[in-house]
Amino acid sequence: MHKNIIMFDMDGTLLDLAYDDFIWNEQLPIRYAELHACSLERSKEILYDFYQAHSHTLEWYSSRFWTAKVGVDMLAMQLEYKDQVTLRPQAIELLEYLKNNGYHIWLTTNADCAGLDFKLAHTGLAKYFEVIVSSESIGYAKERVEFWQTLQQQHAFNPEDCYFIDDTEKVLNGAKAFGIGHLYSIAQPSSAKPTRQTCNYPMLHQLTDLIPVLEQFEDTQKYA
């Protein structure tokens, strides 16, 4: 039987988003305040405005862009705290199940290439994926339909047969507009924040919740 492609986001899906929240919402304001001799409160206000101005753009995900924008070496700071990068619960269990059952596993992330590389090295996740793609190398953020069009040109796939799991609704909206057939979100991307109560896409409370979904789909295909 033909096995579907299962595409994963990285941060907030396979990895705990608490790390990124810590870097961008806690450590960067402190470093920015020190560097620019302003109060922590003022630092947070300035950074909030920066974040709002660039949210969901390709620049938003670029360490190089933010280093130039704020004057703090963002890649160096991320590496300084890399030991806080952790997998979300059941990530390995799900990936092992998919690999052992012949699914095609892809990683499609908005993390820039440098961030992707150190997180993969730290977690050992790379071995599970047939295709690993950063939006930086594609030239469009995943929120844009052009990301998916370019990905399809580089790695041929049938969108209707794909499963895609991502914690960001705007990214899922872009995938939906392109025609990805099976879309799922994450109920608790960050262990430091409460579980989400609402989402416009079905939410996985545990990553392994995807397994019965796939098994049910396979059963329906047998008798189709």
UniProtKB/TrEMBL annotation:
GO BP, one annotated term: DNA repair
- Source organism per entry reads Acinetobacter towneri
The entry lists its GO molecular-function terms as: phosphoglycolate phosphatase activity
Pfam families, per the entry: Hydrolase
- One annotated Gene Ontology cellular component of this protein: cytosol
Superkingdom of the organism of origin: Bacteria
Asked whether the UniProt record includes Magnesium among its keywords, one would answer: no
Name of the protein = HAD-IA family hydrolase
The record's section on InterPro entries has:
HAD-like_hydrolase_sf (IPR050155), HAD-like_sf (IPR036412), HAD-SF_hydro_IA (IPR006439), HAD_sf (IPR023214)
Q: Which UniProt keywords apply?
A: Hydrolase
